[in-house]
């Protein structure tokens, strides 16, 4: 055999460029939305001098995983997030899930509960039991966990705004099951910072909200040592539009602010840091998502060392992951099973500790029993059939993966530096900095997809010819609301009112004085059957209710489309309308009820303005009556309702009635968002002129709106 | 949009019919000539019912908290049984012509109340347009019985001058920042102001707000202020917590009292009326110029020549004016 020279990277380049007919090899490179370049080939040179090289799982900086054996010892926990309707219904669902291979309970509350309203409050008529389970008092919580042993099953609760009454009611439900606080294992999300940024289920302003977080950490460190007091969440940021490095950076920056808050109260880092956990989204950017989780662990270890953490458990980032719901489509929904599988694999390769996989009907409604089973089975197949679990950090040592891990870590460091310069996350959020970055990324992504520059199978390419609507899960929220109100009345009739008053008064006092632990006082209050709304209200008297600063970016969407003939045509139509009518088409974009999904509303507002519309963007959480009044005052041509949390059949017909009452029936009403096709007819019959579901290009919806308001269709 | 006859608009406004008030404002905002003519008729009929409100202009750098301040002040005024109209002028995008009208979004607590009327408007293409439309809208709301009119405009560009020229009291909202951002406020705006409020004196910003107020006070002492009998107040407020809002309103009332007593307010309004007349003439002239058939015929060619350097600007302008005046006299 002849000894041949080992080929160099230059040889590779030359050979590649021969095949590319004159184009440089770099033309094959792809830039992620974060601006990270993905190269065609990686070599040893890419990983030289990386500090994190050659480390081991279970040892600092934990880049390769928090545990030494990872899934070889014990696979990740399959934890499916669910909740709907009444406590009875959700309880039955959890029990079915546990019987079918689910390994923990993860509670999704309805939006009334999230925002601290009892089910009988007038502002939540459309929301009760719709997008999660309704909880008004301990009596509901007890039903929710009936026959689920809280001493052994770990419960995760996605609760942030109304965290005090909800956590308190869980503690009491356990107490009355005979399980003491110090045996409770589980997690409460309790991450209020990202609520102000992207999730929108805050109640109080930032300052008192951070006090509540501090009170919970402090209380739990004394009384609930096994309980995870915060799940610091990037998930919602990615779902709101953040790219991977923004998600990573803002999540860790939030984490830093929480640690600072606790330390400033005099707690030792090692006394609580082990109870902090994380939550990330895993989207379709396969390699980068794996790198993101690895980088997250490395960076958190550094951050905690800077805080002086000594214990290993303080420095190791443990995380839950959820596949991206945003990446799932309304069109051709069975494709979603493949998307979710790919994302689940990335989460697992990245070393997550627990995982939620989304159902194939994600963009249609809450999951059916069927779609929930497929989602869960996706993980069971990965765990039990694919032999993925035998190796810890299987991508370790890959030139590409190590290099990407470093690059995304560096990107995140840059963003974190910007946050530091703004004075930390609380101040940055107050100034709207992260929100703006995320909205820009969201608008750009939408434009790229709408224009077909990014492929989504079944949506903007390979569209199926004729599609039949699949079954959609439906909650009869009127019935749920009535049964909840019934139970509230029963609770109120049978409790000792003087104890109730005393507990609520104590909460108000503590809110005012800044003294006392609000979780402890809430536990007292829930024990004597105060309702969630009452506990919330007792503090709201002092703290007030936070009103968010709604802003939008401008020019981002239009820029991507600038030279597209379809877009230029649209703008011409808008200008022609303005010339004829004497003013630009004017649309009021609204969110009604407690639905805080505002990504779509913001994208629509911003993109329509780029197309030449004058857009009024209403604040979140409006009632139909308030919306009608604004439509009249602003004299808009059209009200565009964005609705994602299932209240459409209740609130949109009400809006149309309110407009009629004000002699404004000439105002056109259109809507968009997550609406099952089964509901279209009812909405049209109520007077909705047009419905634009997920995946509708703005170039299409804007043109149709123009045609509707000029009476062309 | 359906149009109505002049009487319907006028009666609707005088009866306080919110839908007709809104429709009248839309007519004012219209760029169509026939709408403009009808608007003048309507304003003519409404004028005898105007002039009874106090008109407050609110300006300041982007994000200073103008809208939040107006919300807080509006709540305070409602408690004092006043009827409040709010106008907010948003800059339009040069590129698309469209805009997101966001100010009202920040006034959530004021919504759906019969004693409040909030109307955000896009600034549109010309400054003259903003001036005419905002002034006329203000008059409509006065005729509809609102006794306090607040006009928000962002303090970049020139719209704040326009708003100062149609209000009785001009308020500058400053950021709690004594450094760079303070310098961002143009000296001209400071000179127009009747009061300066430093906002966000709460939570993490409290100290810097105090410092900013201090710096502003010393800076303003050096500045010449044209109003007699009036020491320009610098007040510390928090639109979020409501701190100092009461003081601001008291200052406005004090100003109104003093300036009515010494006749300055009346003089100011007379002056503003003259300016209004001049502005109307200018706007009409420029509209006629833009729509003049001979001018429109010549303009593209002349623009090309001037831009290529084949003709001087002076020569082209005089040709255009000549063409315009010829058409005019026939
Ligand atoms: C992103 C997302 C989130 C983000 C929201 C971030 C944000 N700030 O918006 C996060 C992670 C925070 C979140 C949280 C929750 N979510 Co969510 N979420 C989604 C998800 C995955 C995507 C929505 C989205 O933003 N898509 C991208 C935007 C651009 O699309 P779009 O809004 O549909 O708008 C397009 C069209 O519909 C149309 N359009 C929309 N509106 C309008 C208006 C006009 C005028 C026009 C012309 C066009 C138009 O044009 C747009 C462009 O194409 C959906 C599922 C899905 N794939 O749709 C679930 C979903 C909406 N969420 C759901 C739930 C239950 C929740 C929670 C309530 C869970 C809980 N119990 O705690 C929370 C609470 C949030 C809250 N405060 O309300 C459910 C709702 C169930 C239902 N309808 O019955 C869904 C459907 C998922 C599911 N199947 O379970 N969520
Ligand atoms: N802490 C604090 N924040 C405030 C206060 N007033 C306003 N803000 C915040 O400052 C931001 C801007 O407030 P806006 O009222 O929209 O400011 P604006 O001057 O009207 O802004 P533009 O109209 O966009 O120029 C928002 O995030 C408000 O919540 C205040 O008194 N204290
Ligand atoms: Mg404003």
CATH architecture term of the largest domain in chain B: 3-Layer(aba) Sandwich
Give the percentage of residues in beta strands of chain A. Answer: 5-15%
Backbone shape of chain A: globular
As laid out across the biggest beta sheet of chain A, the strand order is: 3-12-11-10-9
Main beta sheet of chain B: strand number and arrangement?
7 strands, parallel
Ions and ligands: cobalamin, guanosine-5'-triphosphate, magnesium ion
Rough shape of chain B? globular
Q: What oligomeric state is this?
A: heterodimer
Estimated share of beta-strand residues of chain B: 5-15%
Coarse structural class of chain B:
alpha/beta
Number of beta strands of chain B: 8
Sketch the topology of chain B as an H/E string, one letter per element: HHHEHEEEHEHEHHEHEHHHH
CATH topology group of the largest domain in chain B: Rossmann fold
How many strand elements of chain A? 17
- The total of helices of chain B stands at 13
Work out the largest interface and the residue count of each chain: A-B, 54 and 39 residues
- The largest beta-sheet of chain B arranges its strands as 4-2-5-1-6-7-8
Report mean pLDDT of chain B, rounded to a whole number: 87
Describe the structure.
The complex is a heterodimer of chains A (713) and B (330). Chain A is α/β, with parallel strands linked by helices and 713 residues long. In chain A, helix 27 (680-686) links the parallel strand 16 and strand 17 (690-692). In chain A, 49% of the residues lie in helices and 9% in strands. In chain A, the strands form four sheets. A five-stranded parallel beta sheet of chain A has the order 3-12-11-10-9. Chain B is an alpha/beta fold and 330 residues long. In chain B, 54% of the residues lie in helices and 13% in strands. A seven-stranded parallel beta sheet of chain B has the order 4-2-5-1-6-7-8, with helices on both faces. At the A-B interface, helix 16, helix 23, helix 24, strand 14 and helix 25 of A face helix 2, strand 3 and strand 4 of B. The structure holds cobalamin, guanosine-5'-triphosphate and magnesium ion.
């Amino acid at each position: 055999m002849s000894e041949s020279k080992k080929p160099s990277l230059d040889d590779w380049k030359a050979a590649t460029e021969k095949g590319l007919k004159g184009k440089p090899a770099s033309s094959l490179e792809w830039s992620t939305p974060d601006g990270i370049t993905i190269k065609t080939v990686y070599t040893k040179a890419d990983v030289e001098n990386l500090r994190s090289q050659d480390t081991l799982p279970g040892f600092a900086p934990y880049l390769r995983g928090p545990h030494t054996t990872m899934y070889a010892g014990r696979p990740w926990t399959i934890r499916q997030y669910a909740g709907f309707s009444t406590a009875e219904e959700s309880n039955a669902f959890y029990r079915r899930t546990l019987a079918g291979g689910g390994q923990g309970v993860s509670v999704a509350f309805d939006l009334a509960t999230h925002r601290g309203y009892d089910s009988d409050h007038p502002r939540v008529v459309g929301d009760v039991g719709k997008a999660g389970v309704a909880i008004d008092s301990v009596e509901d919580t007890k039903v929710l966990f009936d026959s689920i042993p809280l001493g052994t099953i770990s419960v995760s609760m996605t609760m942030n705004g109304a965290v005090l009454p909800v956590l308190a009611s869980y503690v009491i439900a356990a107490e009355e099951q005979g399980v003491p606080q110090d045996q409770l294992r589980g997690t409460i999300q309790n991450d209020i910072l990202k609520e102000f940024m992207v999730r929108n289920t805050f109640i109080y302003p930032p300052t008192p909200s951070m006090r509540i977080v501090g009170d919970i950490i402090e209380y739990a460190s004394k009384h609930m040592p096994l309980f995870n007091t915060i799940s610091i969440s990037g998930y919602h940021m990615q779902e709101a539009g953040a790219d991977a490095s923004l998600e990573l950076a803002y999540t860790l920056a939030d984490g830093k602010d929480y640690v600072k808050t606790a330390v400033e109260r005099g707690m030792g880092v090692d006394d609580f840091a082990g109870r902090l956990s994380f939550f990330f989204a895993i989207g379709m950017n396969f390699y980068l998502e794996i790198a993101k989780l690895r980088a997250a662990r490395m960076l958190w270890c550094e951050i905690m060392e800077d805080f002086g953490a000594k214990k290993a458990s303080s420095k190791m980032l443990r995380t839950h992951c959820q596949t991206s719901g945003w990446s799932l489509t309304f069109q051709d929904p069975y494709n979603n099973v493949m998307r979710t599988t790919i994302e689940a694999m990335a989460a697992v390769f990245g070393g997550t500790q627990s995982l939620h996989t989304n159902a194939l009907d994600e963009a249609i409604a809450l999951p059916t029993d069927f779609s929930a089973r497929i989602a869960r089975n996706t993980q069971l197949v990965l765990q039990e059939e694919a032999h993925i679990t035998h190796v810890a950090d299987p991508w370790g040592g890959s030139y590409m993966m190590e290099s990407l891990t470093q690059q995304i870590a560096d990107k995140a460091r840059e963003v974190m530096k910007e946050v530091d310069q703004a004075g930390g996350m609380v101040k940055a959020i107050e100034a709207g900095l992260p929100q703006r970055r995320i909205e820009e990324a969201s608008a750009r992504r939408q434009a790229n997809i709408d224009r077909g520059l990014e492929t989504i199978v079944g949506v903007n390419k390979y569209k199926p010819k004729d599609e039949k609507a699949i079954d959609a899960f439906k909650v009869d929220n009127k019935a749920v609301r009535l049964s909840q109100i019934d139970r509230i009345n029963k609770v109120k009739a049978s409790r000792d009112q003087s104890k109730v008053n005393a507990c609520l008064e104590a909460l108000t006092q503590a809110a005012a004085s800044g003294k006392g632990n609000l979780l402890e006082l809430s536990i007292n209050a829930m024990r004597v059957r105060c309702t969630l709304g009452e506990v919330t209200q007792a503090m709201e008297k002092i703290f007030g209710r936070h009103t968010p600063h709604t802003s939008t970016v401008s020019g981002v969407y239009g820029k991507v489309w600038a030279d597209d003939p379809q877009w230029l045509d649209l703008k011409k139509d808008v200008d022609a309308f303005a010339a004829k009518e004497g003013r630009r088409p004017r649309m009021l974009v609204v969110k009604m009820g407690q639905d805080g999904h505002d990504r779509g509303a913001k994208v629509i507002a911003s993109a329509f303005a780029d197309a030449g519309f004058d857009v009024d963007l209403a604040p979140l959480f409006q009632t139909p009556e308030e919306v009608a009044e604004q439509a009249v005052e602003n004299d808009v041509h059209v009200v565009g309702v964005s609705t994602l949390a299932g209240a459409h059949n209740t609130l949109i017909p009400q809006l149309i009635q309110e407009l009629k009452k004000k002699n404004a029936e000439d105002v056109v009403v259109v809507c968009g968002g997550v609406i099952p096709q089964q509901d279209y007819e009812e909405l049209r019959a109520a007077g909705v002129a047009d419905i634009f579901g997920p995946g509708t290009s703005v170039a299409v919806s804007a043109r149709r709106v123009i045609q509707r308001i000029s009476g062309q269709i | 949009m359906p149009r109505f006859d002049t009487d319907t608009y006028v009666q609707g406004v005088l009866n306080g019919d919110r839908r007709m008030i809104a429709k009248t404002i839309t007519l004012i905002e219209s760029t169509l000539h026939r709408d403009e003519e009808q608007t003048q008729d309507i304003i003519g009929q409404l004028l005898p019912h105007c002039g009874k409100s106090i008109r407050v202009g609110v300006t300041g750098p982007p994000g200073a908290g103008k809208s939040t301040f107006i919300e807080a002040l509006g709540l305070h005024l409602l408690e004092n049984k006043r009827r409040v109209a709010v106008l907010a002028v948003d800059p339009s995008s040069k590129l698309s012509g469209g805009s997101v009208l966001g100010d009202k979004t920040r006034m959530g607590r004021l919504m759906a109340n019969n004693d409040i009327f909030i109307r955000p408007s896009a600034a549109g293409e010309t400054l003259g347009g903003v001036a005419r439309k905002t002034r006329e809208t203000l008059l409509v709301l006065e005729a509809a019985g609102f006794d306090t009119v607040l006009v928000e405009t962002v303090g970049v560009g020139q719209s704040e001058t326009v708003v100062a020229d149609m209000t009785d009291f001009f308020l500058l909202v400053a950021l709690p920042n004594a450094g760079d951002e303070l310098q961002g406020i143009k000296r001209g705006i400071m000179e127009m102001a009747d009061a300066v409020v430093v906002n966000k004196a709460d939570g993490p910003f409290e100290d810097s707000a105090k410092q900013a107020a201090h710096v502003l006070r010393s800076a303003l002492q050096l500045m010449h202020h044209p109003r007699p009998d009036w020491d320009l107040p610098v007040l510390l407020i928090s639109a979020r917590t409501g701190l100092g809002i009461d003081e601001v309103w008291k200052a406005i009332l004090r100003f109104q009292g003093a300036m009515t007593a010494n006749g300055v307010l009346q003089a100011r309004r007379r002056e503003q009326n003259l300016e209004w007349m001049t502005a109307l003439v200018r706007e009409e002239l420029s509209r006629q110029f833009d729509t003049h058939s001979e001018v429109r015929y010549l303009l593209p060619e002349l623009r090309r020549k001037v831009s290529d350097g084949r003709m001087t600007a002076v020569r082209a302008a005089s040709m255009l004016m000549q063409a315009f005046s010829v058409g005019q006299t026939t």
